[in-house]
Structures are given as structure tokens and as C-alpha cells.
């Protein structure tokens, strides 16, 4: 139980940071398109600019679908990387994949998030030492944390690695079609967990798994915190630029 009690705050922090990262990703996409539209008055060009900005991450997203499907023995078809309107949404790419069972479809849908998270954790820890930055910020040492963040970006190729971190983090989120098989899978997982608890099965396998996973979860959480700071700074710049170029409302003359 002590392992479980220790792991819960870390797991909660990971989920919270992921949700914040997903929210920031949507806001950044919106502001990039809005800013481009204000400058060009072209909806199509706004979409293309967002696509070009996130292109490396989009390629990784679709390649993760393709590779996972092939590893699971599913046939793959057309691989497309280009924005295309689909209903009220715009898909930046797609891969035709043969439908499999629930577990196969769920893994294919989650593949960009899994691959993206692994890459974010590797870049965050190997390049930016994100664990030290996240630890300082979470302990309330804001000045030291942001100073370390600034120094990390100033290292050799720091800007390039930061760009890769940015595009991977903002392109790895599952699309609506990716999330479709996860609804049923989530229900089965919840039911299995309830049965496990009600029957009173031993918790030792769970605690052993947590012991093994906890260092990886901590590294990923730290990398997410680093990416969140990066996204917040970029979103702030986009917000200011959008406010500066936004059309001003016309003032109506007061009647004499």
C-alpha cells in the first residue's frame, strides 16, 4: 500500500499535465490559424501554415499509426500527410488501416500518444534535464526553475530540440477517430478493476508493476512540465501578436 500511496500523486500529476498539454495544444492551433487569418484573410492558408509548422510531428503521428498496425499484423493502405476537411474538423494526415479486434484498434489509435510520449521523455531528460527543472518549479523555486529552463534552451542545438519537442507534443494528441475504440476499452478496464477490487485479489502484482513503472512516469511527467512551459511561452507570444493585428471594431458616431 505504501508503494500505491507514493505512486498516486505522481500518476495524478502525469494525468493533470497531459490534460493541460492537450488544452494548450488546442489553443495554440487556434491562435496560429487566427493570427494567420488576420494577416492573410485566407482560411486555407491559415490551415496550411499550421500544417507546415507541425509537419515533423504530423509525420511522426501518422508513422506511429502505420508502424503499430504493421507490427500487429494489420494491413495498411494509403499514407497521406496533408490537411483535409472532414466535417467540422480538419485532419492533417491519415493512414488507411485494416480494422482488427478491440485491443488492436485501441493500440493503433493510441500509437501516436505512446510514441510521442517516449520521444518527449527522451528529449526532455537527455537534452534538457527536465527532471531538475520540474523539481525546482514544483518545489516553488520559480526563479531557479525558469533560469534553468532558459539555460537549457541556450545550449547547442537547444532551439532545434525545443522545436521538435513542441511539434511532437502538439501533434501526438489522439484525433476523434483515434479515440473511437478507446471508449469501449476504457469501459472494460474499469469493469476489470472493479471486479479485481470486489473479489479481493492480491495487490502485490499491481505494486510490483508500479515500482517498475514509477521512474518512467516521473521522467515523462518532468518532460511534460518542460513542454507545458514551452507551450505557455509560445501561446503568450501568439496571444500578443493576435491582439496586435486583430481588426479593431468600428466606432459608431454618436447622434447629435
In short:
By secondary structure, the protein is mainly alpha-helical. Helix content is 75%, strand content 8%. It has one domain (25-239).
Secondary structure: elements and pairs:
Blueprint: H1 2-40, H2 43-53, H3 55-71, E1 76-86, E2 89-97, H4 102-126, H5 130-138, H6 142-153, H7 158-171, H8 176-199, H9 204-245
Antiparallel strand pairs: 1-2
Helix pairs in contact: 1-2, 1-9, 3-4, 3-7, 4-7, 4-8, 4-9, 5-6, 5-9, 7-9
Shape: globular
Radius of gyration: 21 Å
Number of strands: 2
Strand order of the largest sheet: 1-2
Order of helices and strands: HHHEEHHHHHH
Low-confidence stretches: none
Secondary structure category: mainly alpha
| Beta-strand content | 5-15%
Number of helices: 9
- DSSP helix fraction: over 70%
The total number of structural domains is: 1
Structural summary, described in words:
The chain has 256 residues and is mainly alpha-helical. The chain has one domain (25-239). It has helices at 2-40, 43-53, 55-71, 102-126, 130-138, 142-153, 158-171, 176-199, 204-245; strands spanning 76-86, 89-97. Strands 1-2 form a two-stranded antiparallel sheet. The chain is globular, with a radius of gyration of 21 Å. 24% of the residues are buried.
Amino acid at each position: 500500500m505504501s508503494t500505491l500511496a507514493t505512486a498516486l500523486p505522481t500518476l495524478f500529476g502525469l494525468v493533470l499535465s497531459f490534460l493541460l498539454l492537450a488544452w494548450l495544444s488546442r489553443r495554440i492551433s487556434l491562435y496560429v490559424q487566427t493570427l494567420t487569418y488576420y494577416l492573410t484573410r485566407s482560411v486555407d492558408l491559415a490551415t496550411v501554415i499550421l500544417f507546415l509548422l507541425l509537419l515533423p510531428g504530423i509525420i511522426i503521428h501518422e508513422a506511429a499509426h502505420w508502424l503499430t498496425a504493421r507490427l500487429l499484423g494489420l494491413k495498411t493502405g494509403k499514407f497521406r500527410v496533408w490537411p483535409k476537411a472532414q466535417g467540422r474538423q480538419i485532419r492533417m494526415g491519415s493512414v488507411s488501416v485494416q480494422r482488427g479486434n478491440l485491443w488492436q484498434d485501441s493500440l493503433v489509435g493510441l500509437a501516436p500518444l505512446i510514441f510521442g510520449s517516449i520521444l518527449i521523455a527522451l528529449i526532455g531528460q537527455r537534452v534538457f534535464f527536465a527532471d531538475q527543472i520540474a523539481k525546482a518549479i514544483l518545489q516553488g523555486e520559480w526563479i531557479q526553475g525558469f533560469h534553468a529552463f532558459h539555460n537549457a534552451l541556450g545550449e547547442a542545438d537547444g532551439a532545434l530540440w525545443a522545436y521538435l519537442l513542441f511539434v511532437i507534443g502538439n501533434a501526438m494528441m489522439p484525433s476523434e477517430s483515434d479515440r473511437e475504440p478507446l471508449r469501449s476499452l476504457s469501459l472494460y478496464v474499469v469493469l476489470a478493476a472493479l471486479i479485481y477490487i470486489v473479489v479481493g485479489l492480491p495487490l502485490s502484482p499491481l505494486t510490483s508493476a508500479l515500482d517498475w513503472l514509477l521512474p518512467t512516469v516521473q521522467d515523462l511527467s518532468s518532460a511534460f512540465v518542460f513542454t507545458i512551459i514551452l507551450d505557455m511561452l509560445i501561446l503568450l507570444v501568439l496571444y500578443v501578436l493576435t491582439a496586435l493585428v486583430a481588426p479593431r471594431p468600428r466606432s459608431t458616431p454618436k447622434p447629435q
